[in-house]
Amino acid sequence: MSYEPLTPPTDLFTEIVNSLNESSPDRLRDIASYAEALAEHKEREARLEEESNEVDVEERSDDLPDDVPAKATITIKEINDNRYYYWQWREGKKIRSKYKGPVNSDD
What does residue 19 show for φ and ψ, rounded to 5 degrees? Predict the structure, then answer.
């Protein structure tokens, strides 16, 4: 790591740069972790919004539960090294999910 002063990105607000410069290393790591998680969350929301705008559903899937809207998509979540299918859709600003079943290793 260089001992030269760091140059922040030009599009960062001065208040943010000053606040970061005054923060401890532990606080900076917490901020970095939060910023990364927030970026992933916003990217996922944008992707879901884009998918919901692109999907043109003409009929309900036979395995779609009654309480899941036709615009729902299937996503895979990994929990404790196991993979599961979930129906996922947007309701206003919230993203809703409903369990569908395990991902078969044969797929």
Answer: -65, -40
Tens digits of residue pLDDT in 27-45: 999 999 898 988 888 888 8
**Are the C-beta atoms of 73 and 88 separated by less than 8 Å?**
yes
Q: How many Å is the maximal CA-CA distance in the chain?
A: 62
Q: Which strands form 94-102's sheet, in the order they lie side by side? A: 73-79, 82-91, 94-102
The pTM for the full model equals 0.46
Among 79, 49, 74, 30, CA closest to 19: 30
Segments making up each domain of the chain, as ranges: 10-54, 60-107
CA–CA separation, 41 vs 90, rounded Å?
14
